[in-house]
Amino acid sequence: MKKGLTLLIFSILLAGIFSFGIAQSTTQGPAIVNWGNVKYGGTLNVVMPWGQLTNSVNPFLPTSQTLQMQNLIYESLFYVNSLTGQLTPMLGTSYKWSDNNLILTVTVRNGVKWSDGTPFTANDVAFTFNLIKKYPALDLGALWSKDNYLESVAASDDSVIFTFSKPNTPLLYAILGQLIVPEHIWSKLSDPATYPNQNPVGTGPFLLDSFNPTTNTITLVKNPNYWMAGRPYIDKIVVRSVESNTTVMLELLRGTADWSYVYIPDVQKTWVSKNPSINKIWWPMNSTLILYLNTRKYPFNNPVFRQAISMAIDRAAAEEKAYFNAGGPSSAIGILPAQQSEWLDPTLEGLNTSYSKYDPKAAQELLASIGFKKNAEGNLVGPDGKVLPTYKLPVVAGWTDYLTISQIIAQNLKELGINAIITQESFGSWWSTITKGMYDMAFAWATGSGPTPYFYFNQELNPSFTSPVGQTSSSNWSGYTNPLITAALNTYSQTSDLRLQKQAMYTIERIFLQDMPFVPVVYGTEFDVFSESHFTGWPSESHPYATGAGIGSAEGEMIALNVHLK
Predict the structure, then answer these.
(1) CA gap 441, 309 in Å, rounded
(2) Which of 307, 348, 349, 537 sits most deeply, having the most CB atoms within 10 A of its CB?
(3) Rounded-to-integer distance, Cα 354 and Cα 332, Å
(4) Are the C-beta atoms of residues 100 and 163 closer than 8 Å to each other?
């Protein structure tokens, strides 16, 4: 067969595969997938370990005080994929920055109605933002914090104008993700912070049908007048809240639940392997867990010493023993895997790999290069001839995953001649020790995460979050600061130019690897667990349209808009 004819036939076959075999994103956005012909109907059964629920759907209250169904009833301007930064238009259709990034203009969608039939307009959006300004208790995302520089929000025809006193482009994601409420209802409330909102009026794909406090069950039904044509596919969602993860697991194994968000130890063995064709998970890596080193103390104030510690930690063993390979060992820099191709300086890949590779011999050589060597007893001796003291490594009592990882870290450090003793403490004691800078080393979560590495680096390295030792710091617990990093963070936040933002991140990444302010160890994951006995269309590696943070999250709406009967 001639080569040209072969290629033609291959092209036709390939086109057929992509037309009929693989679902594609619609023009609506990357989180709304075109599945082709689907079956409509069905009741989706969800079980969550939330304990007793409170009969309220107030979207401005912490989720622990509500039915946690806000994101199926109310909507935001855009859905922000927190792993990739991809945006899907919802109540908004477009946005643009102007006036040197002091003005953000968001265009809102026409033809949308609130579930009581009242038209949705730009006035509802402006009202929502000004409501949370008037009542600071509603501002859960601190949008109006003085450090965010948001000055005013006003409607203009089909647009909403956000004015800043100083550029702060990273706030875009929080603005676009804010749930919007109807002005014609919320403007009449005397105290919106305590409003139970038991008959919510929203623009979302579902309506609250009932809440049964006896069975702790929420029932939602499809909004017949939802603005997105053809969605949702399912008719009803029933959510039951139980007291424990164990009960959730039993429901899943019995087949009485289609979906949950729950941590299951060794999930591949205890859930997926029971019936691999239908028992599925979506656990994308979305957070970084790190070993904080108190850079205000000797010898942790030495960047080469910190680099050696990074090379001495067996990250793969820590992840396997604590999380059964659900996530993955972290890179030395800690940027999420989903963001590395877009944001990691390609010239740093080799250095990033070398500092994350478990190599105790190279770590020992690195320590020796700055005068730290083992004595005859196997203890590390500093350049001053003194044996290093035994360091405390505090862990919250009962946190078995953190304890396991801390034990591995202690064993790895022992190979270098560094002695670390694990102390199990109450959460309050542990929290106070770390946040007040009263520790030597401590394993904990990275305080910052978001759709780009800026959010990670800003929380961990911005000096504005650091307080003197003895006073509580909201983040940057390592106490490390660098004026070049601070300048790069400011550059990123004051521009909307992607090229300049990437250059700012590249600058921070290079300095990070040179100084190693803290040591990323493993990546944490989301915990979506579902069954394909009755429904399909769940997020997966082939269709990562949502991060998978459970039904009570912004991702919950995207999943509810995509799943459909088999």
Answers:
(1) 11
(2) 307
(3) 8
(4) no
Instruction: Report d(CA 234, CA 278) in Å as an integer.
Output: 19
Q: Residue 87's beta-bridge partner residues?
A: 80
Task: Judge contact between 462 and 483, C-beta under 8 A.
Answer: no
Model confidence over 364-409: pLDDT tens digits?
999 999 999 999 999 999 999 999 999 999 999 999 999 999 999 9
Tracing tokens 């921070």 back to the chain, one arrives at 508
Tell me the average pLDDT across 454-478.
93
Residue 33's H or E segment, with its range, is: strand 29-34
* Contact criterion met (CB below 8 Å) for 421 and 453: no
CB 322 within 8 A of CB 512: no
Using CB atoms within 10 A of its CB, is residue 275 exposed (0-12), middle (13-18) or buried (19+)? Answer: middle
**Any bridge partners for residue 357, and if so which?**
none
Quick one: pLDDT at residue 43? 98
Q: Note whether 518 and 478 are within 8 A (CB).
A: yes
Please tell me the number of Cα atoms within 13 Å of 392 on its side-chain side. 13
**Type of residue numbered 540:** S
CA distance 276 to 269: 10
d(CA 300, CA 279): 46
